[in-house]
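2 proteins. here.
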Amino acid sequence: MEAVFETPLKTLDVATALFAPLQKKLDELRENGLYRTFYEFSHISEHPGHTAHGGRVVQVWSGNDYFGLGQHPDLIKAQIESTQLHGTSSGGSRNIGGTSVSHAELEKRIAAWHGKDRALVFSSGYAANFETLSTLIAAIPDMVVFSDRNNHRSLIEGIARTGCAKHVFPHNDHEALDRMLAGYERERPKLIVFESVYSMDGDVAPLGAFFDLAEKHGALTFLDETHAIGLMGPTGAGLAEELNDHRATFVQGVFSKALGTLGGYVAGPDSAIDYVRSHAPGFIFSSTMPQAVLDATLTGLDIVQRGDDLRRGVMDNVIRLKNALRKAGLRFLDGGTHIVPVIVPGGERVHRVSRRLLDEFGIYVAPVTYPSVPKGTERFRVTIAPFRTPEQIEAFVSTLQLCLEQE
């Protein structure tokens, strides 16, 4: 017989009173078209770039699995075989039996990939950014941080967690950054934090200019390569490899985008990365990823490192997509990367168009609204895989055009 637990009436009354303001804020999100709707999908391994929703197959045009490796047979095989050997759990955190030989191998390969002394694997890119920044900044007395205005929330929160002195410079503005850095003596510890590719606008950082400023003012640099990994560079190591400029003190990346699995990492100087390994709470006190995930990641890394055809396929399709959007007269931001933001102003409007594309045409493209982007610049963040055909691209653009014109 199942036990029945009743919550005391007074407790319910207290909870209702405390949560009433939360419900009001949720209602305001709905009224302003900012409430986030999570659709339920089931990815289909036989059809990369497609997912099952409501009993039918739909095309996905806004995912982060840039190459479709999440459904690649080699990755699936590697993960299944490793699961059969090692099970479904890591068994604990890294320091109490959770470190596998695959952790060690992957960290060595990542460090070598970026030309750094050492790398450390985390359960997510968010954790990699937050834990590394919050731990290192707090460990260095009088550190002052300079952060790009468009940085990802994980970078912002990692910096804010320390309470350090900080400056936010206008997006990609190296002249403004130069002036801010000049306000401090060269001996003062300084850290410049920025991304290589910005996921909402699809633009890139002036990498060389930032590194030059770091050398000029005696600053360290933290480069988030999340959305460049796999897509840029001769072996997919990111924008730094693309430009052959490896002056970043720290490089962060993820496995959950182009590599098709899960997790993130940071690479950098040996002592600094070892300090994070030894002191970061979110690393020490969290169970690590199962070995099977890491074995699939190693397979994905093999594919990406020799994946010139994948990179060419993506960029060829990006060119086709942009040409089709121009021909249709649809507004988009051209940052020169694989991310194509199509601007659809209005929170309610972009949600309505997204819902119609899904319900009537079997196309899923996620609406992006405030606070992810400024109000009035709502958009569809369109990404396109190398396996998309010219016919699919034309059909996507014509359908999008139809839905927007009828709004």
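next one coming up
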Amino acid sequence: MITMRQVVASILLAIAVTASVGAAAGERDDDPLVVNSEAFQRGHPDMRWRNLGATRYQQKRYREAVRHFRDAARYGDKPSQAMLALMLWNGDGVEADRVQAYAWIDLAAERGYGSFVATRERFRTALSEDERRRAMELRNELYAKYGDEHAKKRLNLEMTREKLKLTGSHLGRPKGVLMLLPGPDGRVRAITDSVFWNPRYWSPQQYWALQDRIWEPSKGRVDVGPVQPVDAEPAAAEKR
């Protein structure tokens, strides 16, 4: 029987894999160099804050993880919204709050990603009628701030702003120019600008389509069983 902590572990594993988006999407091998670069992550705060949140969670620095996941959630990052839900359900770094947890997992399931929909339904069956009512009231508040209608606009603006900042003085230059980017290991490597500026990363429409391909059920499903009681030790040990 899969517990909520196993669901957390599954999402964290998926985040680790998708930190190299190209590998998860079947793209070329040098893509991890692109998505882990400082220049890329300045224009993609959803991934920057999501990855920081996952790192802090694994370090059991839960309060910092909550802050980073919430920052990513502002840019429509569904895995981060799901992690906030699970942390609220389990009481990791925050007071356990099933009403807030359900509201966040409902938001995470906005695009119909299978694992998040399944988790939402397991949460729902564990709530009382009064808790469900209050959760739906809170849900409306979250959608008004973090729902795709608003969050995607924020990220689209960041992508456009960073692209203009980096390319504005170089328009019209020949294709195939080399760019020097620091890799995850700190070493600087050269790639062609056509790899870095691939539209799947910088065209908002294509970037959102890429996220859908990564997180839809066909790209990796998490089957979730009934909600199980969890050990309260992490919450007691970490109210950071």
